[in-house]
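If your schedule permits, I should be very grateful for your opinion on a structural question. The matter concerns a single protein, recorded as an amino acid sequence and a row of backbone structure tokens. Could you please explain, in whatever detail you think fit, how the structure tokens follow from the sequence? I set the record out below, with my sincere thanks for your time.

——
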Amino acid sequence: MIVISKECVLEKLVKESKALEKAIAGEELSYDDGIELMSYDNLYMLGAAADLIRQDSVGDKVTFAVSYYLNYTNVCAASCQMCAFYRKGDEEDAYTLSVKDIESRIAKAKEMGATEVHIVGGFHLELPLEYYEEMFRTIKRSNQKMHIKALTAAEIFFISKLTKNSVKEVLSRLKAAGLDSMPGGGSELFHPDIRNKIVRGKCSGQEWLDTIEQAHNMGIKSNATMLFGHIEKPEHIIDHLIKLRDVQKRTKGFITFIPLKFSLENTELEKKGLVTSESPSTYDLRIIAVSRLMLARELDNISVYWVALGKKLAQVALTYGGNDLVGTAFSEEIYKAAGKGTNSSIIELANMIKEIGREPTQRDTFFNILKTF
């Protein structure tokens, strides 16, 4: 692995980019700085700067969790153009898991060594709040130590509206039933100009932000995500990152940030010809690097989702500011519906990390170290 000294990078950056110079000096980047970085033409130096910030923030460990994904239903009242997973209730392959089904899945997760179960699904109009409470209680009854990371802010907002309970009441009841933390999905991109084109039947960007802030204030930490690589522009990316950064300043409730690459296959955006190909690897690496630089000193963990990027590009992304591979993603269904391979193992992830000269480390949901390899 080639290591570039901080002095070497600084000398080059002083001549090339004021935004990168500010980042290396430890200053917070502005909206205009972010726009500059989205068009900065030296991708290699952008990555080198992001990697230096990563090294200063978290060192050379690359973490991952042993996670089991449980998608409890694909029936969804929304019909987002970027989603290949959702089904309407009368479609042949629509499904909803019973609590007994879920109990069986959790037994399998336990056998596979999972320390967390990642639970997300569609917006099902016929599932009461009690369904989710029973789900969580059942999981905890069979395995008290299994961490339940469940329901995006978008799902919580939907359940609140459906059941006519406040967001606070929904979160309070679910926390009492066993909810430990929340995933970061459903945020997509916050800016209404782009959100209204890719999201249909889901909360607004501001409603997502308000919901997640309520969760944080109740002691429920979460991940944060951003869906990129479809029809967005640089200003939408930077707007999203700054809004997440602002919440993090107030709550310190985000655990990690996961940029999610849009997967084209089987989506309405593909069928309508609005997107004809997935984003190039150079753009994907830019997003990882810019995310690290914009969120520096507020959110230390930048996760590289190998399911979306592919394993080889994920390795490269770990040298562009990433420090985490999210997890094993056992039984993941959402990206699978969009044509992505989701098979992996603990050993394979550890070997991916070793191959780039970094230290593989298994973590729990809150980034406490469980095992090194």
Notes: Residues 14 and 330 are 45 Å apart (CA to CA).
